[in-house]
Amino acid sequence: MSTLIKNSLKNSMSYQAYRALVKQLSLENSTTGNDKIEVLANYTKLNEQRMKRWDKTIKVQKKAENRLKDFNNDMTWLVIAESRCGDAAHVLPVLNKIAQLNLHINLRIVLCDENPELMDAYLTNGNRAVPKLIIIDDETGDVLDTYGPRPTEATSLVNLYKAKYGALTPEFKEDLQHWYNNNKGQNIINDIVGILCKLEPSACQ
Q1: How many angstroms separate the most distant Cα atoms in the chain?
Q2: Measured between alpha carbons, how far is 118 from 9 in angstroms, rounded to an integer?
Q3: How far apart are CA 160 and CA 145, in angstroms?
């Protein structure tokens, strides 16, 4: 395992600790990250409500649940996130729900601004983008795969919009939130099942 990963894991927290942190920051009108400005604090407050809702409502379909329970390789899922990030608020509760189904998965979370070297090692198209999931083999310490910052369908929507209009508008970002709400985490679940099947094909036969 690389020194960077080891040090990042030392700074990591459980999902439950992350949720408690976001809730407390929301009550204090604050946010994670280096910039404690009002607009980001408002995003944190909104994301607390999103995560609270998803924690209660995310459902894993029986077929996916059975498959997720079949994976036997011990792995750590290290996720880079920030409380201000809307995508993280939608993605993290789903990853937690999946991790709860399989004792071989250890979900840990670190903050982007507190771990800049880790973030810069896992850029997306040259940019810092969260959430970013790093899948680590516990036996070898190898990074097996990465995922994020968005599920595949949302990524396609974003790429198509950027190709046509050059940048994401507030209207598109609102539409993206509606997509997350309508999809109910199913694209994320299917993406993760696909990654795990690639890593452990015998579990998917």
Answers
A1: 50
A2: 10
A3: 25
CA-CA-CA-CA torsion for 162, 164, 169, 171, nearest 10 degrees? -120
The model's pTM is: 0.97
Residue 11 in contact with residue 115, Cβ under 8 Å?
yes
| Distance in angstroms (rounded) separating the CA atoms of residues 92 and 83 | 11
Residue with tokens 């995003």: 43
Could you tell me where the DSSP H helices lie in the chain?
3-10, 15-27, 38-57, 62-69, 86-100, 116-121, 152-165, 170-183, 186-199
| Residue 197 pLDDT class (50, 70, 90 cuts) | very high
The Cα 116–Cα 97 span in angstroms is 27
- Output the CA angle 89-54-136, nearest 5 degrees: 60
**Integer CA distances (angstroms), 117 to 3, 113, 123, 163, 189, in order:** 11, 9, 10, 30, 28
Amino acid at 63: K
What is the separation of C-alpha 59 from the centre of its chain, rounded to a whole number of angstroms?
17
Residue-wise pLDDT tens digits, 8-50 = 999 999 999 999 999 999 999 999 999 999 999 999 999 999 9
User: How far is it, in rounded angstroms, from Cα 143 to Cα 5?
Assistant: 9
